[in-house]
Amino acid sequence: MSGTYELGTGQRAGAMSESQLLDTQRAFDSVAADYDGPRGNNELIQRMRLTLWDTVCKALPPGSRLLDLGCGTGIDAVEFAMRDYQVVASDWSPRMIERTHDRAAAAGVEAQVEAVHVGVHQLGRLKGEFDGIYSNFGPLNCAPDLGAVAAECARLLRPGGKLVFSVIGRICPWEVGYYLMKGRFKRARVRAARGATAVGMNRHTIWTHYYLPREFYRAFAPHFALDDYRALSLFMPPPYLVEFYRRHRKGCERLGRLDDRLGARPLLRDMGDHFLITMHRR
Ligand SMILES: C[S@@+](CC[C@H](N)C(=O)[O-])C[C@H]1O[C@@H](n2cnc3c(N)ncnc32)[C@H](O)[C@@H]1O
């Protein structure tokens, strides 16, 4: 999401309150109408999206029942529905849920996509059993209590079921270099903050936790075994540098191939704009 979020301000860090959850909800409501444009789905975002799609499809056969946490406008949910998965698509932003509902109807897959206004901090409201749970581009960075999310995922997932999450990482060398060069020192170190950190988007605030993969996994370890994790957009610039990518497309594509080849290697996999982590329920 820092990819999709703009302007980290790093104003303050701490535990996430009800009013912070509402700030985040307002921020995403405010961009829902045009979130499929450059802000939410440019070429660099789409490239990372494909990695999650491939990972989910390799982990679970068509026909599986999936839960999408923080579905946004429903791009992933509708894609999986068109590939014959059943998806419950959840989000904390009611405007995003409307977009998901409309997208599923426009694609003729409303029977396979159920869009529900449920935050990741409200998963206790969901019933049923899923084969897989995925979350793309950092909704879990907005969760007030990751351990509680992990416990709910364990309740909702069948034994052996899969989790596939893309999460905003702590160490993004592109971001540090870019903002240091611009003299924006506070912005350059926003991902170093502990606890909930204010990140600006569209003159609203998204309250975000940044994680190293091992910090993130710690919350899930009581219920889930780690399968794998890899960096997303470590060599490739992060999505908000899409204009740079467009000016240097050939060179950046080479960097993208480096991501594909080296992104799962030890140490490198701990960096990147996002990381993709897969686990299974014990
Ligand atoms: C960067 S967008 C990603 C959307 C979508 N997964 C995608 O790939 O385009 C982050 C999404 O997380 C949602 N979100 C933020 N906080 C949330 C929360 N506490 N519970 C559920 N969703 C949340 C936002 O409303 C937004 O739709």
From TrEMBL:
<dbReference type="Pfam" id="PF13649">
    <property type="entry name" value="Methyltransf_25"/>
</dbReference>
<keyword id="KW-0489">Methyltransferase</keyword>
<dbReference type="InterPro" id="IPR029063">
    <property type="entry name" value="SAM-dependent_MTases_sf"/>
</dbReference>
<feature type="domain" description="Methyltransferase">
    <location>
        <begin position="67"/>
        <end position="161"/>
    </location>
</feature>
<dbReference type="GO" id="GO:0032259">
    <property type="term" value="P:methylation"/>
</dbReference>
<keyword id="KW-0808">Transferase</keyword>
<dbReference type="GO" id="GO:0008168">
    <property type="term" value="F:methyltransferase activity"/>
</dbReference>
<dbReference type="InterPro" id="IPR041698">
    <property type="entry name" value="Methyltransf_25"/>
</dbReference>
<protein>
    <submittedName>
        <fullName>Methyltransferase</fullName>
    </submittedName>
</protein>
